[in-house]
Design goal:
Two copies of one chain form a homodimer. With 117 residues, the first copy, chain A, is an alpha+beta fold. Chain A is built from five helices and three strands. Chain A has a two-stranded antiparallel ribbon with strand order 1-2. In chain A, a hairpin with a 2-residue loop joins strand 1 and strand 2. The longest helix of chain A has 16 residues. The radius of gyration of chain A is 20 Å and the shape is elongated. At the A-B interface, helix 1, helix 2, strand 1, strand 2 and helix 5 of A face helix 1, helix 2, strand 1, strand 2 and helix 5 of B. Strand 3 of chain A pairs antiparallel with strand 1 of chain B, so a sheet runs across the interface. The structure holds a DNA duplex (30 and 30 nucleotides). Chains A, B: Keywords: DNA-binding, Transcription, Transcription regulation. Chains A, B: This is ArsR family transcriptional regulator. Chains A, B: InterPro entries: ArsR-like_HTH, HTH_ArsR_DNA-bd_dom, HTH_MetalResp_TranReg, WH-like_DNA-bd_sf, WH_DNA-bd_sf.
Chain lengths: 117, 117
DNA sequence: TGCCTCCATCGTCCATCGACGATAAACGAT
DNA sequence: ATCGTTTATCGTCGATGGACGATGGAGGCA
């Protein structure tokens, strides 16, 4: 498959980047228990739509799903979410080797009066 | 505008959820200096495309842009990114009041033999 | 066996995204 | 005043996303 790091990161961020999927993740975080039907009843969305959102989250590795008899149970993959949070945090802390938090290059900002866009 | 919290969070996540925009953010994190032209030369994308990506990041509040004479300079909004990272982290730590990291509800998982989907 | 519930998948429709080239606007330099 | 450079915006096009209803399969129960 050859998926670049940033492609995977982008995939996971995109999976989170929808209000309905955020609601699903929050529900799973609060309950740690799953039950697809409960999620559907909590969301005012069609069952098929919720199922698709769950699929997106599952394919991104953010949740796991198990079949339990007649119903499906979903759980957060807290470890993947923790890694994701760390990656987002690493975006602005940056420069993992060498100095961290480099001082702003003042010389880049003094040449002419600058106005906010 | 009445933007719900999750809508704003989703907007910011969606802004990050693209390899090109991740590359832009990384470049800004590494250099702390901006120059639209440099970003364009680093990306193998058309200048208009990069400009659109910068616009998305700016509208999400993840970067700031200033006009400096004939050119534009972009910088990371590290504070917003930090808040974002915290929000992602809060998704799996959840339950901000009451106990944190609740024990898994074992009873939800023992009713029948479960198989991974 | 037959029904009912639960859920995943399919097909469709409309909206948005991502890419590009072309154009316009702002500015410095000649 | 004009030209070249730099960047933002517009218009377009194909691809993808998100919503839905309909369908189908798996499993529990009468």
């Amino acid at each position: 498959m050859m998926m670049a790091d940033d492609d995977l990161l982008a995939l996971r961020l995109r999976a989170l980047a929808h209000p309905a999927r955020l609601a699903i993740v929050r529900a799973l975080a609060a309950a740690d228990r799953c039950q697809c039907g409960e999620i559907v009843r909590g969301l005012t969305l069609a069952q098929s739509t919720v199922s698709q959102h769950l699929k997106v989250l599952k394919e991104a590795g953010l949740i796991t799903g198990t079949i339990e008899g007649p119903r499906s149970c979903y759980c957060l993959d807290r470890e993947t979410l923790a890694v994701l949070a760390g990656q987002v945090g690493g975006l602005f802390a940056a420069l993992e080797d060498g100095q961290r938090n480099p001082a702003p290059r003042a010389d880049a900002l003094v040449s002419s009066p600058s106005t906010p866009i």
